[in-house]
TrEMBL record:
It comes from Actinidia rufa. This is Basic chitinase. Defense against chitin-containing fungal pathogens. Pfam families: Glyco_hydro_19. The active site is at E78. Disulfide bonds join C33-C96, C108-C116. InterPro entries: Glyco_hydro_19 (IPR016283), Glyco_hydro_19_cat (IPR000726), Lysozyme-like_dom_sf (IPR023346). Residues 33-55, 149-159, 257-267 form the Glycoside hydrolase family 19 catalytic domain.
Amino acid sequence: MLIPSGGGGGDISSVISRDLFEQLLKHRNDAVCEGKGFYSYDAFVSAAKSFGAFGNTGDAVTRKERGCCFSLSQTSHETTGGWPTAPDGPYAWGYCFVQEQGNPVDYCVPDQEWPCVPGKNNYNYGPAGRAIGVDLLNNPNVVAADPIISFKTALWFWMTPQSPKPSCHDVITGSWTPSDADKSAGRVPGYGVITNIINGGIECDKGSNPEADDRVRFYKRYCDIMGIGNYNYGPAGRAIGVDLLNNPNAVAADPIISFKTTLWFWMTPQSPKPSCHDVITGRWTPSDADKSAGRVPGYGVITNIINGGIECDKGSNLEADDRVGFYKRYCDIMGIGYGNNLDCSNQRPFA
């Protein structure tokens, strides 16, 4: 194949299980989604087999959760059907549509090697089609008709550098080293440069904007579900003056840095989540949406902030109960009361 296999072994099903796929893309088959029934787990696994390095390169975090979390969150933004008051939040509605929503730009780019067929688009269709063995220039509509081809074209884009842009895959696996020009332009390793590769001309270097923010919130939701915690190494490192993106192992090597990152997380709100500090000091006032989701002041919402996607809204579970057990022991030692709302068993996670 065009893309060689990585060194991790196994196919994508060992990284993204069927159950996890359903949890990440929870509402894609709802009746209100035009793409209902299109994006199947089996199609995803079948397509990924053509790109052996996808989810199969680097250490355990990079090879598994992080590569898939990055890619699925970006494509979820492009196909989202979520709205602010959607069940389970707006970021549980990725892959609701088969085609990009909004006002896509004209993708008929003048190109001698890959010219547009009259009345059809050609953006990436020539090289992508050649790579996956399908004539997409003359049959671009097959991308929206065949789910395996749809996933293959998305994975081709993810895995393939298009100069001067690196591939998204090379960025997240650490294979890309930014040039001096990249650094001076602010293009450094991290989730942001993935957005830049995909849609930088529209979403980047414009301050905060809803489109780029939407991508980040999909990413954070998927990270929470998959139990990936170091998505905040960039802002945490900046706050404490340490380059944690390029030196994440410093957290486990330097006890002062380890405590600093923990305290940064405790003290810092990450929208839509309040900071843990604001919750326990009474500075957080739950919104109507918080209240309807069961998120009210107490120890339970702290667990929700930290790991709600895995431990909350699932009834009693060992992980959340363990947190409460530690809390009660420390309260007893310090001679203070427990307060109310200790668990998050009936709280929906933050979006």
